[in-house]
Amino acid sequence: MKIYVLGAGSIGSLFGALLTRIGEDVTLIGRKEHVEAINNNGLMVVGVEEFTVYPRAVTETPPEPPDLIILATKSYSSAYALQCAKESIGENTWILSIQNGLGNEDEALKYTKNVLGGITTNGATLERWGVVRWTGKGITIIGNYPKGKGEFAERLVALFKKAGLEAEISESIAGWKWAKAIVNSAINPIGAIMEVKNGDILENDYLLTLAMEVVKEGCQVATQWGIEFDMHPMELLIETLKRTRENYNSMLQDIRRGKMTEIDFINGKIIEYSEEIGLKTPLNFALWSLVKAKESQTK
Ligand SMILES: NC(=O)C1=CN([C@@H]2O[C@H](COP(=O)(O)OP(=O)(O)OC[C@H]3O[C@@H](n4cnc5c(N)ncnc54)[C@H](OP(=O)(O)O)[C@@H]3O)[C@@H](O)[C@H]2O)C=CC1
Ligand SMILES: CC(C)(CO)C(=O)C(=O)O
């Protein structure tokens, strides 16, 4: 399968490396330093598994349409990345978002109806240019967006499994995207504001109660929008906190590095969706405001 990874950073490079290893025709589209390192020395994976592969790596999307574009930028970069890639989106090209947050698939739907939603609980971090650390093995769930499953999604799940990823198909991927976003809307800002590990939220009654209230608020919005969950976000919250006890969440890491966070696509989107139907989400608004304040202090 001809695959472009649009936004080859941490998670995109991991997926790209695994798919290259099984002989798929992968092109990584990333930043200059990463692309140069890959072209000079290959793409090295360390951590859960260790291997080096030699995918094609470029800074601009090639014009030939691929079968699949894996969208793996941070959510705030999706609109621009897709705009730059629009000439390569052919009639038969599918776009799969494996990003966190809400709104990425809707951005992709502006260019094609062939859109798959995805969530992944794999962990990856770019150790240095050309080297990605697979920090934790998880599951990837995909499905036609917003719901349904089709032949291409089935084919892709089989390909992911062959590549060494645990993968499943869901009939209601929008439900998974919302469930993950709701969980992130609680863990990420609380961890970022308090500067604590995910496990500390589980062990502190005040923080856990707050996280659970934020999840309830998000669920009320999702329910009003007719979103159905395969797994309830409250259950996902507890499971995620237990499984990622030792993690400093990605929002805290972004703030520590002076980078922009994905808050506008997590709590920000929940606020937007609630406003559209006249609901108030004061907890999400408070967390969003505090993270925006923290972001502006580090600029
Ligand atoms: N890392 C993880 O373990 C997981 C991440 N996710 C989600 O996946 C998404 C990606 O996360 P992650 O991989 O950590 O992010 P990274 O920042 O590591 O990777 C994204 C990369 O895409 C680059 N990029 C952005 N726009 C373009 C463009 N137009 N052309 C080429 N390259 C571009 C970025 O460069 P620059 O920084 O210069 O903009 C960056 O190198 C996020 O939504 C995240 O929440 C989900 C599960 C796990
Ligand atoms: C699951 C969790 C909360 C792990 O830290 C995450 O998705 C993140 O950090 O963004």
Brief descriptors of the model:
299 residues; alpha/beta; Rossmann fold; N-(1-d-carboxylethyl)-l-norvaline Dehydrogenase, domain 2; 2 domains; 8-stranded mixed β-sheet; 4-stranded mixed β-sheet; 12 helices; 47% helix; binds NADPH dihydro-nicotinamide-adenine-dinucleotide phosphate
Describe the structure.
The chain has 299 residues and is an alpha/beta fold. Helix content is 47%, strand content 19%. It has an 8-stranded mixed β-sheet, sandwiched between helices. A 4-stranded mixed β-sheet has the order 4-3-10-9. Bound molecules: NADPH dihydro-nicotinamide-adenine-dinucleotide phosphate and ketopantoate. Ketopantoate (KPL) binds at residues 100, 184, 187-188, 198, 240, 244, 247, 249-250.
Short description:
The protein is an alpha/beta fold. The protein has helices at residues 10-21, 32-41, 78-85, 104-108, 151-163, 173-194, 198-203, 205-224, 233-243, 250-256, 267-276, 282-298, and strands at 2-6, 25-29, 43-47, 51-53, 56-58, 68-71, 94-97, 115-120, 123-128, 131-136, 139-144, 166-169. The radius of gyration is 18 Å and the shape is globular.
Overall body shape: globular
Number of strands: 12
Please list the strands of the largest sheet in the order they lie side by side: 5-2-1-6-7-8-11-12
Q: Could you give the order of the helices and strands?
A: EHEHEEEEHEHEEEEHEHHHHHHH
Average per-residue pLDDT, rounded, comes to 97
The count of domains is 2
What is the helix tally?
A: 12
Strand content: 15-25%
CATH superfamily of the largest domain: NAD(P)-binding Rossmann-like Domain
Indicate the structural class: alpha/beta
- CATH architecture descriptor of the largest domain: 3-Layer(aba) Sandwich
**Percentage of residues assigned to helices:** 40-55%
- The CATH class label of the largest domain is Alpha Beta
